[in-house]
């Protein structure tokens, strides 16, 4: 199983440890997918952080601070949602993901030339 990149936050590493084994079993994670999974895991951690900050520092609805906080939560949620779809982590994206595991390269003549 690929190791999580060193730059991930602690929360992102926890999400990696939870998700990577499940993706490996499904054939949805290879060494090539490390950057994309890292992006998802860090997006998960960032969303959790921004949402927690927004909840813990209440501001008046509609104020400039509320608008900034709401926009930050929405941006983090959007990135999380987009990267989750790459691994079929939502019901709608799951139907589009085809896990194939490691790809074997076909080097036979038939791949390049019409036989017959």
Kindly state the percentage of residues in helix: 55-70%
Mean pLDDT, as a whole number? 82
What is the domain tally? 1
Strand content: under 5%
Task: Summarize the helices and strands and which ones pair or pack.
Elements: H1 10-26, H2 34-56, H3 64-86, H4 91-94, H5 109-112
Helix pairs in contact: 1-2, 2-3
Descriptive key words:
mainly alpha; 116 residues; 61% helix
Can you give a write-up of this model?
- With 116 residues, this protein is mostly helical.
- It is built from five helices and no strands.
- It has one domain.
- It has helices at residues 10-26, 34-56, 64-86, 91-94, 109-112.
- Helix 1 (10-26) packs across helix 2 (34-56) and helix 2 runs antiparallel to helix 3 (64-86).
- The longest helix has 23 residues, at 34-56.
- The N and C termini lie far apart (43 Å).
- The relative contact order is 0.13.
Summary of the model, kept short:
The chain has 116 residues and is an all-alpha fold. The chain is 61% helix and 0% strand.
């Amino acid at each position: 199983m690929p190791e999580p990149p060193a730059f991930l936050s602690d929360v992102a590493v926890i999400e990696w440890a939870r998700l990577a084994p499940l993706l490996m079993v499904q054939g949805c994670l290879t060494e090539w997918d490390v950057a994309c999974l890292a992006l998802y895991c860090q997006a998960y951690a960032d969303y959790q952080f921004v949402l927690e900050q927004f909840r813990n520092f209440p501001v008046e609805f509609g104020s400039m601070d509320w608008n900034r906080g709401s926009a930050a939560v929405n941006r983090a949620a959007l990135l999380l949602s987009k990267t989750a779809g790459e691994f079929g982590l939502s019901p709608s994206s799951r139907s589009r993901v085809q896990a194939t595991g490691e790809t074997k390269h076909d080097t036979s003549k038939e791949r390049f030339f019409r036989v017959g």
